[in-house]
Write a structure and sequence with these properties.
With 151 residues, the protein is α+β, with helices and mostly antiparallel strands. It contains five helices and six strands. Strands 1-2-3-4-6-5 form a six-stranded mixed sheet, with helices on one face. The longest helix is centred in the first third of the chain and has 12 residues. The radius of gyration is 15 Å and the shape is globular.
Length: 151
């Protein structure tokens, strides 16, 4: 999914593994795997974040209270194999990820350059709105923070 980016520090397999270990230990962690004909075609994972979470602390400008006054769910990663892109697979995986969630809002961070802007546009088509920027680590590009209601 990200093979052309693996040489960059933020996208290296070891960096992904470290993030997954950290995220998997956080409250409310859920992962969803999508399969077709018995083969994995995509995934999504995320967890619950609270007002004081570093996710919100690194967002500038500070997010509106309506997004942080109650726990939210943060979609930390979503990916679909190339052959399955444009088929609605990502949307179905995302819907399955949200189905059991009770938080009023879902948030994510996107590299606005990803896919020449197509990824950002996809999230907008799912109802997400830009609310700020974040740079989660020195190796990370500046990301756009987006949010929408879970339902």
């Amino acid at each position: 999914m990200r093979a052309p980016l693996l040489h960059l520090p933020n996208y290296a397999v070891t960096a992904f593994g470290e993030r997954l270990d950290r995220h998997g230990a956080e409250p409310g962690f859920v992962a969803v795997l999508g399969y077709a004909d018995g083969h994995p075609v995509g995934y999504a994972y995320g967890n619950t974040i609270e007002r004081g979470d570093r996710y919100w602390q690194r967002t500038t400008p500070a997010p509106a209270d309506e997004y942080t006054e109650r726990p939210a769910v943060a979609l930390k990663e979503i990916g679909v194999r190339t052959a399955w892109r444009g088929t609605g697979t990502a949307s179905r995986i995302f819907d399955a990820f949200l189905a059991p969630r009770e938080e009023p809002y879902v948030t994510l961070m996107v590299n606005p350059e990803a896919g020449d802007g197509k990824v950002h546009a996809l999230y907008r088509s799912w109802g997400f709105e830009d609310i700020g920027q974040s740079q989660p680590s020195a190796a990370s590009p500046v990301l756009t923070v987006m949010v929408r209601a879970t339902r």
